[in-house]
Amino acid sequence: xxxxxxxxxxxxxxxxxxxxxxxxxxxxxxxxxxxxxxxxxxxxxxxxxxxxxxxxxxxxxxxxxxxxxxxxxxxxxxxxxxxxxxxxxxxxxxxxxxxxxxxxxxxxxxxxxxxxxxxxxxxxxxxxxxxxxxxxxxxxxxxxxxxxxxxxxxxxxxxxxxxxxxxxxxxxxxxxxxxxxxxxxxxxxxxxxxxxxx
Length: 198
Hints:
The protein has six helices and seven strands. The chain is an alpha+beta fold.
């Protein structure tokens, strides 16, 4: 995909960059309202929770779909994003690498996480570990939901956007980005576990 994927990631970066500021401003406004007129009502709680969730998702998407140059993303930033994105959900995510990771590797990990989310709609645990220069994601769940046509896209080497729903764009993008980064994407599926390595 080459140049097309570069344009796509630049578009992702621009959208996330433009959205994060107004969402941050809304969050600041909520804090000011609570300071001037403290309220523990359900309305304020719902607005605050929604803004926090939107902010977390945009930070996640900015890495997953944005441009990745040579920056290093520190462990605190990655774990903060994952904590906010998966707080209160059915999935728990454990980020194992202790050192900062190249943004391009974190981007691959976040796209892979989105694939795992799709295969684990009933919840479970996802662990991300570093093995040499590779990252390995392992999803454990009592019940998985595997759409073979989606998961085959990751390993056939011939991803296509034709017939792909927006909710599944990660399955088309992950192999393209992995190829662009010269990473060998491997997937292993069992009844209760999904392993992805690159």
